[in-house]
Amino acid sequence: MTRQTIGPPVRTSSFVGRRQETAEVKRLVTAHRLVSLTGTGGVGKTRLVLHAVPRLARAFADGVHLVQLAGVRDASLVPLALIEALNIRDVSGRSPVRVLGDHLQGRESLLVLDNCEHLADACARLVETLLAETDGVRVLATSRHPLDVPAQHVLELQPLATPTAGEPLPPKPALEYPALALFADRAAAVLPGFSLTEANQDAVAALCRRLDGLPLAIELAAVRMRALGVQQLLERLDRRYRLLADGAYGTDGEDPLPRHRTLRAAVDWSHDLCTREERAVWARASVFAGSFDLGAAEEVCAEPGLDRDELVDAVAGLVDKSLLVRDGDAVHARYRMLESIRQYGLDRLREDGAHAEEAARRRARDWCLDFVEECEERWFGPDQPELVRRLHAESDLIRSTFEFCLTTPGELRAGLKLAGHLWFFWFATGALVEGRYWLERLLAAAPEPTVARARALWALALMLLSQGNAVRAAPLVEEARDLALRLGDEAEVAHTFFGRGGACLISGDYERARAVYEDALSRPPRAGESMSLVGFKYVELAHVLAIQGEFDRAMALCEEFRQICLAHGEQWIHSYLLRILAFAEWAKGDQAAAGVHARECLRLKRAVGDVFGTGMTLELLAAVHARDGEGRAAAVLLGAVKRIWQDAHVALDRTPSHGPVRTEAEDGARALLGDAAFQNAYREGLALTSDHAVAYALGERESAPRPVLDSPLTRRESEVAELIAEGLTNQQIADRLVVALRTAEGHVERILSKLGFTSRSQVAVWTEGRRATRP
Q1: Element containing residue 140 per DSSP (H, E)
Q2: For residue 713, which of 759, 763, 651, 673 has the smallest C-alpha distance?
Q3: What is the residue-wise DSSP string for 282-349?
Q4: For 558, phi and psi rounded to 5 degrees?
Q5: Tell me: the pLDDT tens digits for 203-260?
Q6: DSSP characters for 560-603?
Q7: Which pLDDT does position 438 carry in this prediction?
Q8: Which residues 6+ apart lie within 8 Å of 95 measured at CB?
């Protein structure tokens, strides 16, 4: 995995102050494996983390990964959120926690868990498990309260510094007081030319004191500078505070903490200054877990008397007031609320009665279901990469819709229908852990014999088949077929053919698989049948025929459906047809044609993000190189495939039809290179990410990163070896790489073991020798 920072798009507003806090976060993460950044709502925990994280990236060879948990409501989904953030594509069938633990073994990663407070117990359990099972993983969590995990280090984020009442201001107060600097920065954004002056700085200081230095409250107040002066802002805010102190807000009779009351006053005031349309959109949009686009807002937030143009104006108004944050890019605008703002909106929505929130969530469910159905209908066409992007973007809303359907009476059938329509997304992108999670829960909760259940059954079977579990998949797909026959749904009956034949194929029963697919292709497509699943009948029958030596018929079938794919601009099924076509050509002895089609296949798989298909195609291309006498290229690709299978925990004996390809590629490459050269090239491939391996196979890069050439060491171990050669001690190495001393010591021990050395001086000599011969 390459070093990376995964997170939301960059905020357009500047980051003001917090220099000392940023340095402290970096220091603590260097010294401790778990750091909890705590503080009241609106104090800026997330903004500080997003500012500090890029400055930590160099210290973690395997990446910094941001996991946003504000949109996750069900504690059991925390591991799935991490799996998605880490882009893990695992086919082992193990529990999500086990998948995470094994994936992170031996890696140096920083996991940033943002907004943990509502999932504190689940986060604590998962973090404790991951820290116990790994050495190089560290966690930075943001929460209103510390996680209940031993040995954590807590940093409580305080509000921005403000001048004390009556204290004379220094000549340049913005340099001394970050609260004043933040107000001036945000005010200038809405009132160009605004700056702190002797005439206004006392009023700004009083305003920031009144807002307790809370960044969110200061930003909300600064927006009002478009219409009011600083003194007017202060006077109106004072009146708002008096109302709050007199008990105009709150229902439990308890006086909230002062900073909570401050934020409530600022948000209340912003709400009062919103138009009726803006208030309605704010309340209803609060049911979105995570970000949303304008189309979703139009469906969920519309009401009689609020047309689409007015709704767009309301969204723009909320953005102008800093109540909505605009994410995305110039082409794909998305919106989200800070958690404090979203919770306020939910409170306002609930004031209209329980029915109001449920009605808004039902509209969100309807939009989500319509959106996913549309994606499935458009899937067999040119828009697959864009559909994958959009479905990933809506993952928070999709999960919250599943939760709503599982916990709300009368909604199970809608949830089952939604899961059934997502089969193509989970299957194509390798998100099998998540697909199984929802399908299994919904099927267990909704046993009624419906068409939605029939589809969910065969969809779950596809997830299991992708994980090599034909034993469990076979009865599920037969149950789906029997139910569809009983209900008279011919399209769903036709959909089961792919799974029925797949169970036979994975089990090595090629004759039975061939009979199933021959039968399927003898029937014309039914109304409502997925063209992707029609295409897979061609793919798998051609696959069986190629395995059985009927190469010409296999290639003819591939070419027949390829024309349909080309006519529709389809890429996913087309890529599988190309792989089978290349396999048949390779088996027949036409290496040139096989290489051309395998590379074309890789280009399409990269566009869709099909990790497993990429691995199988790289394996085939390695076999092509071996037959062409290109042993080094074959060995590099075999190493790259090994890494893909390791990361996905694929058991290679689960794919018997691919065994001959892999075996011939390895035997051929070893015969061409000899064992030592083969191992060197193989290790080079192991260092490649999936994307880099595809680039190498397509001739877009010449090799793996140089530090691991002709070396048994990983990239980080090679870096440590270089520092040993410089004469650094273990502590100095730890300081240079910003890792714990124990981690540095572990690297040194592994280097000595791998190289068969007993002293650091031997490592230094070996490293110098490599420097002298390195190109």
Answers
A1: strand 137-143
A2: 763
A3: HHHHTT-SS-B-HHHHHHHH-BTTB-HHHHHHHHHHHHHTTSSEEEE-SSSEEEE--HHHHHHHHHHH
A4: -60, -45
A5: 899 889 888 888 998 988 888 888 888 888 888 877 766 654 454 444 343 444 566 7
A6: HHHHHHHHHT--HHHHHHHHHHHHHHHHHT-HHHHHHHHHHHHH
A7: 95
A8: 79
pTM for this one? 0.81
DSSP one-letter code for 142 = E
Listed ranges 12-26, 382-396, 645-659; the one with the highest mean pLDDT: 382-396
Average pLDDT, the chain: 85
Return the C-alpha torsion angle 425, 428, 429, 433, nearest 10.
80
Listed in sequence order, the residues at least 6 apart from 440 whose beta carbon sits closer than 8 Å to its beta carbon are 460
**Is residue 352 over pLDDT 60?**
yes
Distance between CA atoms of residues 546 and 587, nearest Å: 8
- Tell me whether residue 96 is exposed, middle or buried, using C-beta atoms within 10 angstroms of its C-beta: 0 to 12, 13 to 18, 19 or more: buried
CA distance 613 to 460: 19
CA gap 505, 543 in Å, rounded: 9
| Rounded Cα gap, residues 32 and 119, in angstroms | 22
Residue 519 to residues 314, 436, 550, 565, 655: CA-CA distances in angstroms? 56, 29, 18, 22, 23
| Of residues 433, 374, 480, the one with CA closest to residue 648 | 433
Check residue 709 and give its pLDDT: 41
Tokens 């086919």 belong to residue = 91
Distance between CA 349 and CA 283 in Å, rounded?
5
Phi-psi sector, 318: left (phi>0), alpha (psi -120 to 50), beta = alpha
Exposure string (b/e) for 667-676, b if CB count within 10 Å is 16 or more?
ebbbebbeee
Highest mean pLDDT among 159-173, 258-272, 586-600: 586-600
* Burial track 456-480 (b if 16+ CB lie within 10 A, e otherwise): bbbbbbbbbbbbbbbeebbebbbbb
Higher pLDDT, 648 or 497: 497
CB atoms within 10 A of CB 447: 9
DSSP 8-state symbol, 555:
H
Least Cα distance to 634 among 669, 672, 584, 599 occurs for: 669
Give just the sign of the alpha carbon dihedral 659, 426, 335, 407.
negative
Confidence check: pLDDT of 392 > 50: yes
pLDDT in tens, 746-763: 788 778 766 767 677 767
% of the chain with per-residue pLDDT over 90: 42
Strand order in the sheet with 34-38: 5-6, 64-68, 109-114, 137-143, 34-38, 153-156
Which residues are CB-neighbours of 617 under 8 A, at least 6 positions away? 575, 579, 582, 598, 601, 602, 605
Closest CA relative to residue 103, chosen from 121, 116, 123, 84: 84
Helices (H), 609-725: 611-627, 631-648, 659-673, 675-686, 690-697, 715-725
The pair phi, psi for residue 422, each rounded to 5°, is: -95, 5
699: left (phi over 0), alpha (psi -120 to 50) or beta: left
> What 3-state DSSP class applies to 168?
coil
CA distance 551 to 588: 7
DSSP character at residue 139: E
207 compared with 17, residue with greater pLDDT: 207
Residue 249: predicted pLDDT: 42
Going by their DSSP bridges, the two strands 137-143 and 34-38 should be labelled as: parallel
Element (H, E) at 556: helix 551-568
Structure tokens at 190: 């809405």
Burial level of 239, CB count in 10 A (0-12/13-18/19+)?
Answer: exposed
